[in-house]
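Hello Y.,

Per our agreement to keep a running log of every chain we model this quarter, I'm adding this entry. I've kept the format consistent with earlier entries: sequence first, then predicted structure.
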Amino acid sequence: MGAAENLAALLDLVLPADCAGCGAAGVGWCADCAAVLTNGPARVRPRTDPGVPCWALAPYEGPARRAVLAVKERGRRDLTGPLGLAMARGLARLRTPDRPLMLVPAPSRGGSARRRGGDPVLRTARAAAEWLPDCQVVPMLRVWWGVRDSVGLTPGERQHNLRDRISVRRGPLACLDDARNAEVVVVDDVLTTGATARESVRALGLAGVETGAVLVTCSA
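Predicted structure for the entry above:
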């Protein structure tokens, strides 16, 4: 953990944040807002079909949306645990019994991750894996240089922006003896058009890794 992350974690302890979902004082994520993420996962069908089932814990609205934005834009690392637990519960309902589970976080642009003090999707996936037996997180996807921030792009522009620009890092893949025996799930925070999910699944397939599903916190 870097100095910035250590400082943020210390501030979270010294100065308890208000609820990211409703603003209630004295608690970072209240029980009522947490309940919003317990009804799923629900099947969603994005505009760009990644070729595998897509699932979301909640719609991109209300407390769920505000929590995702708080993590991404305001550095609310205190939400990593609650969001990871919600993701773990969703995965427990989806996974095949008695089969290893591999979580592959959707890739983040390097500049975005640096501004946020790390990759929030990766942190959430690791928090989820702590709750699940026989589960590992493998951050093997990367975005190539030149990909723009997707905020403000049209669906067509999002597809063009990412086409053939997500690939698998061979280092993590080479260390996985059981990659082809595991149930592979791509995880992300928000599913909008499905462009990132499709390119992630495509890249994994080209590397010989079959994706079983996509699970996101919110679907827009």
